[in-house]
Amino acid sequence: MKGRLPLIVLLFSCLSALGQNKNKSIYLQSKNLFAALNGNKIVLDGDLAEDLTELFSDAVTADDIANELNNNPFLKGKITFIAPNAQSAGTGRFNSLIKQAGSLDVTNFANALASLLIDRAKEELNLAFFNRLQQFSIKYPEFQTLFPTSYDRLRNLLNVDYPRMLPVLREAFFSDIEQLTYNLEAVLELPKYQALRNNFPEINMAIETLKLIHKLENGATPSEVIVDVDDAATNITRGDYWANASLGFKNLVTTVHFTRIFSESLQGDDATKIWISLTDAKDLVKNENFTRLYLGLLWQKVVKMRELRYYKNKTDFTSLQDLLASNSNSILLFQNKISQFLSLASQVQHNYNEIKGLAPGEKPGPEQYYNYINTSLDIIDFGLSIVKLLDKDLQPDDYLDIARQSNNLYKDIYSKQYTMAVNDGFEIIGSIHDLIKTKKDDVNDANVNIAFNEFSTFVSKAKPYVLFIGNVADAKSEEDIKAALNNAILPVGSSSIKKNSANNLSIQAYLGAYYSMHNDRSDAVRAWSDKFGVYGPIGIAYTPGVFSFGKGGALSLFASVFDLGAIIDYKLKKDSVITSTDPASSSSASKQYTVNLGQIFSPGLHLVYGFCYNVPLSLGIGAQYGPGLSKIDVAGTTNVINPSWRFNAFLAVDLPLFNVLNKTKDRK
Q: Phi, psi (5° rounding) for residue 628?
């Protein structure tokens, strides 16, 4: 399972514990008071007063309780409470809660040679990509933590033959993705992020939440989850770093406490049910006096918790008790919200019963857990909506996106949609990153800046590798794997990278046409005899930041190594061989020719201008030596003549294959 995160347990903060409270719920207490209502008066006899003592911090007698209730904003002037005798009452206690393909094996046939060059070139690029992935995994402990088995395989990458490399890695990818929900939380616990944990309680809540959801997956009850979440939240509020908590996060914690109070208040006396049903609550949601009794006791419980506040800014806050009191005449509004809650609760109850009603030894399926968690998230959404309804300006940090992503991650894994799984998992990390980013300027700590910059670097650089892992794991055929590799090398449109770079070094190819300038050497027939021709060099391009002009294009220095122009030219012409005297029966035939590696070796140096904006065309000028192979004619005969130097200009499509080095310019 934006593994599982800060509210995904908060999702269960509205789940009510089964049999977790020895005291009666607020619903049952208000039900007893409603039964004792005579006109507009209630006499607090011993039993009624005893039931209510746990809602009051200081009241110990029926007189004290009656005085408190008679001043309750929901009850004052509506219902009068009378204590027949001063009686002592016991005090109650409040119960708390994510290969070596360097050599080219040249064949004797043009198509075979071209295919070999293409295939081996791709293998070289693929191997280079795997080497980069290996170096990335070694450099970043976050990757090692997220994908430990893959990291172990990558460390020994060069000891594996290329044909076996992908199967070995793919098996490791499967293993790591299956454990992604557990590995996510471990990333946040890395020592390098201690400074972030010390200053951002949101991260600590995220870690605790992930652990608690794992307990739920392993059979923990909702009551156990609620207790653990409350304990975690309480520990966070008591920590030194609580002072650095954002106002939104503090509002969120208040909402969590209130949602739990509200949820527990609607428990019944049927141990098989998490909450009362709509049928049970018929009078509660229709009779104003019953509703006021219920809300009055709910308010008392909030008052007892004292420091429950909602912040609009650092100095302007509203206590939860005042917020509720200011809406004491909105009885119909509360009745509607209670009805909505219980309607959602019935769905959670149904899913809960499915999980608990299985035969002995039979475990719930992942789809059942997914549905259970999803409906519980709807309950949390409801809990937050109450606060926003009472005051639209009070906006707690919204962790629900992270919670939804966490549950989607769980679903992705059990349904074996691995690309979606790694994407959802990585988006959870990205969401935490963005959450910290919006708050880090409020913390003046050099260690925080260092840790955050390292986190940012990992987030920005890891995404292509993470998606590659998912794509390979998802692949159903060899073609799917090839597509994953092609996407990982460099996407279409990568010619624009060097135009926005502070420093770029790439393996580069061009495909277009050349114009050869005058050659004074006439002592022999030379390779560069044509003024125009097809140009297909592969080499290395370097673009310094000073010549990277953004929308204005870029100037690069290009050193060619090979030139496949003659072979490309031949393939593009698609010559026909007449195999019959009847033109209608002519057909295309493959022509056989022999080319060796030395014949396409063609070193050179060019200054190349990449066109403005994102137009993938380049104009170059420079000098080149070679090639031994100058042309393949219609009959399939190769023309091998004396190589020589030429000065030429070319216009070609810009085809960067992959970046060896790239540093993006800072945008101000």
A: -70, -35
**Count of CB atoms situated within 10 Å of the CB of 286:** 11
Three-state SS letters, 609-632: EECCCCCCEEEEEEEEEECCEEEE
CA distance 666 to 648: 36
| pLDDT tens, residue by residue, 73-96 | 999 999 999 987 543 434 333 232
pTM (2 decimals)? 0.58
- Which residues have a Cβ under 8 Å from the Cβ of 207 and sit 6 or more positions away? 185, 188, 189, 197
Q: Are strands 41-43 and 80-82 parallel, antiparallel or unpaired?
A: parallel
Is the Cα torsion angle 497, 502, 508, 509 positive or negative in sign? positive
| 377 CB-contact burial (10 Å; exposed 0-12 / middle 13-18 / buried 19+) | buried
pLDDT averages per 10-residue partition of the chain, 668 residues: 39 39 78 91 85 76 88 92 60 30 33 45 62 84 90 73 71 85 83 85 72 64 65 73 73 79 84 84 91 92 81 81 88 89 84 76 76 73 69 61 72 82 83 78 80 87 84 78 70 71 87 75 57 83 90 91 71 46 43 56 90 83 77 55 81 81 70
CA angle 638, 641, 644 (to 5 degrees): 130
588 three-state secondary structure: coil
**Alpha carbon distance 604, 622 (integer Å):** 8
CA atoms within 13 A on the CB side of 440: 21
* Gap between the Cα atoms of 260 and 20, Å rounded: 12
For residue 575, give the 3-state DSSP assignment: coil
Backbone φ and ψ for 276, nearest 5 degrees, come out as: -70, 160
pLDDT digits (tens, 9 = 90+) for 211-226: 666 666 665 656 566 6
Query: Comparing C-alpha atoms, which of 346, 342, 352, 380 is closest to residue 265?
Result: 342
CB contact at 8 A, 42 and 81: yes
Residues 338 and 292: their CA atoms lie apart, in Å, by 13
Q: How far is CA 416 from CA 57, 370, 468, in A?
A: 53, 14, 16
